[in-house]
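User: Design a sequence. Structure:
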């Protein structure tokens, strides 16, 4: 498209177009080029060498279904550098990919395909198509690249060589992977408890305060105990407001029917309503207390 614009511009100049005409054409051409590029980017949001095929970005240099261009399937061949190629013609072996599907070209003398497709060397380097061994391990241990490990319990070689469950515990992490009977599992770090599939701190989690699933109505958990949401000095841990049983501040059932219980000698009366509900939630309505 750019070469066509240059040719047109040169033809106009050769036909004796004045400066204003040439400038007008140049500005129009640049605007059209910018619009065309914008439309192309909207149609193909992938960055080269990726191409937008089947509503996804594919790597066109190695895609066996979209080799070089969309929908160019290689069949029994393999896509190499955007061209469908026979592995055997370039001295390699055609291998089937058991994980991602499709095919790939393999060198059967390397550690990933030693002597056969997919034969990964775990003991030592591949030499002449054979995985070599460098150490002798005692019964119950397996060689993993020169190291004897217990595949049933080694968190860095769990079940098989190089299958890693664990790593260094970073800041803010609450669990770590361990290997149990050759399978990776998750265990909680000290001070954390497994609740469902999560390791939680029951001393400060308002949704699991002191025990899994024990939620705090106030939204505050301190040392495994729900904190009261009230700010008054006369509010107890359960969120109920107390009044003195005797003296000028005393209130009886006959004076205020909203009391949850009557005061007793030397004790306190618990105010169920009159501005404070029995669950510690502030209310502007005065409602009778629930039945005892």
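Assistant: Done.
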């Amino acid at each position: 498209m750019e070469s066509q614009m240059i040719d047109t511009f040169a033809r106009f100049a050769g036909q004796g177009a004045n400066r204003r005409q040439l400038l007008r054409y140049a500005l129009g051409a640049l605007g059209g080029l910018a619009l065309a590029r914008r439309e192309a980017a909207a149609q193909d949001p992938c960055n080269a060498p990726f191409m937008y095929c089947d509503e996804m970005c594919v790597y066109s240099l190695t895609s066996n279904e979209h080799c070089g261009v969309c929908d160019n399937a290689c069949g029994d061949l393999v896509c190499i550098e955007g061209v469908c190629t026979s592995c055997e013609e370039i001295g390699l072996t055609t291998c089937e990919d058991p994980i991602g599907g499709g095919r790939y070209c393999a060198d059967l003398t390397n550690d990933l395909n030693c002597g056969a497709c997919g034969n990964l060397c775990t003991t030592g380097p591949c030499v002449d198509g054979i995985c070599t061994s460098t150490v002798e391990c005692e019964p119950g241990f397996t060689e993993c690249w020169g190291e004897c490990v217990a595949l049933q319990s080694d968190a860095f070689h769990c079940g098989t060589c190089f299958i890693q469950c664990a790593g260094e515990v970073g800041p803010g992490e609450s669990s770590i992977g361990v290997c149990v009977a050759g399978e990776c599992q998750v265990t909680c770090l000290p001070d954390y408890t497994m609740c469902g599939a999560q390791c939680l701190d029951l001393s400060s989690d308002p949704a699991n305060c002191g025990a899994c699933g024990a939620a705090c109505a106030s939204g505050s958990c301190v040392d495994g105990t729900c904190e009261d949401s009230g700010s008054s000095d006369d509010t107890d841990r359960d969120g109920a407001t107390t009044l003195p049983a005797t003296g000028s501040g005393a209130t009886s059932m006959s004076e205020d029917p909203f009391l949850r219980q009557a005061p007793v000698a030397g004790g306190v009366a618990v105010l169920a309503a009159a501005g404070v509900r029995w669950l510690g939630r502030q209310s502007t309505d005065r409602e009778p207390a629930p039945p005892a």
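The helical segments are 2-14, 19-43. The chain is about 15% helix and 20% strand.
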